[in-house]
Amino acid sequence: MKKQETIGKTYQWPADQITRRPVADLIPYARNARVHTPAQIASIAASIREWGWTMPILVDDAGTILAGHGRLLAAQQLGLDEVPCMVAEGWSEAKRRAYVLADNRLTDQSTFDMELVSAELQDLAALDYDLTLVGWDGEELAALLEGSPDFEPGTEADQGKLDELAPKIVTCPHCGEAFDLREHEQG
């Protein structure tokens, strides 16, 4: 395992070198919980055609895929014989299995600044770039290209009575009686 010197500490990188491996030698992880649709695989393949291979597949010592199942399927769709890989050396079974879940889940927890996305897409459209490559579908893309809606201020009649609290009904799990929490919140 390679060591990286960082601010007075030595950190061991589990995957420090990129090598090419034959696609036929890569073993999909049998319990990979991430599902890839044919449309997503086609999008990944289009991305590889446009930008080349930008992120290696992560495998363990035996060649089992820890991250990059979708990229492997896209490589197969493109008819590639070999792909860039990194090996996570020396990981325990538990660490490998946990990483497969973490790699697929952690990015799902992020969000987008949709105003910035809209601005970036509008700029790319002005440059006549193929926006189908960036991952938003037709309806989403059309809405994002329109930019922020121009809302006019509503009236009190439009919004209802703003000074009234909405009911907050809860049911007692023991007796089954329903209570309105507003009665207890107003002092």
Can you summarize this structure?
The protein is 36% helix and 18% strand. It contains 7 helices and 8 strands; from the N terminus they run E-E-E-H-E-E-H-E-H-H-H-H-E-E-H.
The radius of gyration computed from the alpha-carbon positions, rounded to a whole number of angstroms, is 25 Å
Structural class: alpha+beta
CATH superfamily of the largest domain: Conserved hypothetical protein from pyrococcus furiosus pfu- 392566-001, ParB domain
Mean pLDDT: 83
In CATH, the topology of the largest domain is named Conserved hypothetical protein from pyrococcus furiosus pfu- 392566-001, ParB domain
CATH class of the largest domain: Alpha Beta
Order of helices and strands: EEEHEEHEHHHHEEH
Low-confidence stretches: none
Overall morphology: extended
CATH architecture of the largest domain: Alpha-Beta Complex
Strand order of the largest sheet: 3-6-4-5
Number of strands: 8
Number of helices: 7
Distance between the ends:
64 Å
How much helix, percentage-wise, in residues? 25-40%
In terms of DSSP E residues, the strand content is 15-25%
Notes on the protein architecture:
- This protein has 187 residues and is α+β, with helices and mostly antiparallel strands.
- It folds into 2 domains: 2-109, Conserved hypothetical protein from pyrococcus furiosus pfu- 392566-001, ParB domain (Alpha-Beta Complex), CATH 3.90.1530.10; 114-130 and 137-146.
- Helix content is 36%, strand content 18%.
- The protein contains 7 helices and 8 strands, in the order βββαββαβααααββα.
- The chain has helices spanning 38-51, 69-78, 93-106, 114-126, 138-146, 156-159, 182-185; strands spanning 2-6, 9-13, 18-22, 57-59, 65-67, 82-87, 169-171, 178-180.
- The strands form 3 sheets. Strands 3-6-4-5 form a 4-stranded mixed β-sheet. A two-stranded antiparallel ribbon has the order 1-2.
- Strand 1 (2-6) and strand 2 form a beta hairpin.
- The chain is extended.
- The mean pLDDT is 83.
